[in-house]
Structures are given as C-alpha cells and as structure tokens.
Amino acid sequence: MFLRIVASALVFGVVGCSSANATAPEDGGVASGHASDAGSHPDATVGAKDAGGVAPVADASSTGDAAQSDAGGANALAAYAVGVQTRTWEDANRPTPANGSEPARGTRTLVSEIWYPTPGAPTASPTRDAPLAPGGPYPLVLFVHGSGSNRTVYSYLTSGLARAGYVVVAADFPLTVMNAPGGSSDLHVSDQVGDLSFMCDQMKAAALAPSDKLRGAVDGLSYAVVGHSTGGTVAQLAAFGGDDALITHDSRVKAVVPLSGDACMFNDAFFAKRSVPILVVNATNDLFVPPENNGLRAFVNTNDPHMLATLIGGSHVNFTDFGIPDWLLSPKPTAPTSPLATTLSTYGDGAACLPVPAASTLAAMPVDTQHALTVHVVGAYLDAQMRHRTGPLTAVTTSGDPAVVFRP
Fold this sequence. Notes:
By secondary structure, the chain is α/β, with parallel strands linked by helices. It is built from 8 helices and 11 strands. It has a single domain, classed as Rossmann fold (3-Layer(aba) Sandwich), CATH 3.40.50.1820. It has helices at 5-12, 155-163, 191-208, 230-240, 295-301, 339-343, 367-386, 391-397; strands at residues 36-37, 81-91, 108-118, 127-128, 140-144, 167-172, 223-228, 253-259, 278-283, 306-311, 404-407. It is globular, with a radius of gyration of 19 Å.
C-alpha cells in the first residue's frame, strides 16, 4: 500500500499534525556491525501531543509495572515523562534485496527511534537523550510504519505508549521507508519480520550492557508489534506467518496490533497457524484499507484472545501525525495484483481484496479524537496482554463511548 504520506502532506500543505518536525530526519552515521548513537537529532523535541486518556501524575517513575494516575487508579494508563534517542543498527547477517535501480546490499540498515519512560512529571514533548526511569524492565513495543512513511510520523502514538510505561522502538524499514533508494516498495515486506527479531536482540543487548544509557530498559524475552497499513500487515505476519521459506516465527511475539492493516491477501488458513493475541483497529472511513475486506476479515479468522475496535468516522491517514483526508491522496486499495498481495502470495491469492466496498458516509472523526482514542485503546490492550493489568481495558471497553465500538 503506497501512502507516500509525508511527501503528499508537504505538497498539499494541509498538515494538521502532532509532530513539530515530521519530515524525513537526517539519519546520522552508521557504525558497521554494531549500534551507533545518532546523538543530536533534528527531531530533538519530537513535538508529540499529550495523547488524551492518559492523566499525568506528579512522579510515576517508581515502578515499571504499577505507575498509575491518582485520578484513575487501576483503570488508568500509567503516566511517565518520555525520553527519546536515535540509534542505527546494521544487521550483517541478512541482505537488502535489489530495489528498482538500486543494487542488492549484503546487510540491512535500521535507523531506529527509541521512546522510553524517564524520571519526572510528564511533559508535552519527549526529551532527547534523557535518562531511563528506574523501575524497569519495561514492556517492549516494536512499531512498523506504513509504506512510503517513516519512523517519526506516528509520534503521537509512539510517545503516547512510552508515556504509558512502554519502551517503543520504530525503525526506518528498508524498501518501505519514504525515499528508499530505488523507490519505496512493498516487495519483500516479509523481510521485516526478521528485522523485528533483530531489533529485539539489539534492545536486549543494550539493556544488558553495563555502560549503555538504556541498561535495564527491557528484558528482551517478549515484545508486542504495532503497525499501520503495510506495517499492520507486518504485524500479522509476525504473529501468524512462518515457519516457511519467507518467515521464521519469533516466539517472543506476545501480542500484535494492526492499525488499518492490509489483510485481504491472506487466506483463512493463514490465521489458523497459532493463537497470538491480536487487537484489530479499524476506521470506518478508511479509503486505503477498507475495513470490511481487511480488519474485519483478520478478526473473524483469528482465535481468542482477539478483539476488534472500530473507530466511527476514523480514517486511514489520521493514524499518522497528519490530519489529511484520505480522498485527497487518491487512495487505491490493495488488489490481488498489487505488490503487497503478490509478494505475499504464499499466504493467499488476494481474492478477498475485491470487490472494494462503497465508501462510508459517516461524519469524519477529528484527527485529535482519533489520536487520543488510538493511544488509549492500544495502551489499554497492551496493558492487558503484556502486564496482565486489565483495569484500563475493562474501563475503555465498557465506557459507552459511541466513537469506538468493540467486538471481543
């Protein structure tokens, strides 16, 4: 699914975004064979909004598992201040395929942004290279961007989850990243499942290194995958794909959350390989990934524990930092002949991608509302799956909010 969100936003000049600097950042140097800290970074304040539904507390740094809002108690998400840093990791054992005019490379480079809890009261924006809050290890969330996007254009969510007590890592994934050499492409997207395993390994190594700024941040024994659009497809591949010629399943994957993730290319049997907890988040007004052919299909074909959350009036691009109507970007839903479907033909023929359903006529959900609901719903679901803390999920699913409909 080719969104090219950032480029389109700049062309149309209609960005209503929660990131102060969401264009593609400069990546910094790469130290071959190990991680390099990119240090000073143009997104130094990563201007993410204070995502709604997370009430601040005076000091939530005492424990990685139980920091709570005084107002909401056991039913509220935790509320930490947030730190952020950038690292570049080089996987010397896995290649980057040729892409258009760009020749193949023998390694894979993953420029990665890391958001994490830091001491002090929550603030509107993360602090670059802040110290890690005591109380770890914290649950690890790996975020996968959509095609033609990058690691920084979901800052409301990545920062929001870190504020709720998670370590969140988002990489610029080879081939699907905006401005990828040879052009952004969904071909070889299954390689990103291996990237996720590698990212978890790098975070585990950092957490064990005596002098690392993130020592003790995670245990490296489990992680959740959250992804948008093509990234949502990768989340589903991480849960249900493999073991086969394309994918080696990583048993450390404990939960996945596809946000408007393409699923119409998968056959029914794909989802039956194993039971991994999945929260499918749909948006009724999505013109890129129609929920009837995709999210609903993923929910119906997966097993318990699974959950469907539908944002009434929500849209595809509003899952990013940008408040751009879907129609303005000339959406073309995934078809059986689309690169995403053809590269994943091992798992199905894409027949469910057609026919494309009629567009919703529901009133559009404001982007700020969609952002706040996404942080709250995803954070509550992850608390239940990664922390076995069910209060926030029970609260959000029984709130009666007409903007979001749940199906357990």
